[in-house]
Amino acid sequence: QVHLVESGGGSVQAGGSLRLSCAASGFTVRNYVVGWFRQAPGKEREGVAAIYTGGHIPHYPDSVKGRFTISHDSAKSTTYLQMNRLKPEDTAMYYCAAERALAEGALLLPHEYDTWGQGTQVTVSS
What parts of the chain have a pLDDT lower than 50? Predict the structure, then answer.
């Protein structure tokens, strides 16, 4: 059974940094897609980063490009989201999700993923 657990959320001031972790278990393939998503109250869930665990080029939307970095540690089956220069508008519940294979254009689309973690809250104060 596939299982994802996020950690690392918290409260920081604007300009600060956080690193989120997504530990995966139960995958039977070595190369799969992991995406990070966020959802603020009253807003739709949006993708902020995605990567193939086999080491393909990561994907980001313009809103976080240059500030967020996704990486994967195969030995630990853990995917990280390093978030720098955080802004109040980054405040949201952050989720990781995983899928066996996705087309490049689908990597940041929440509805393409079947397996989700429980989420971790990130709050950025001004």
Answer: none
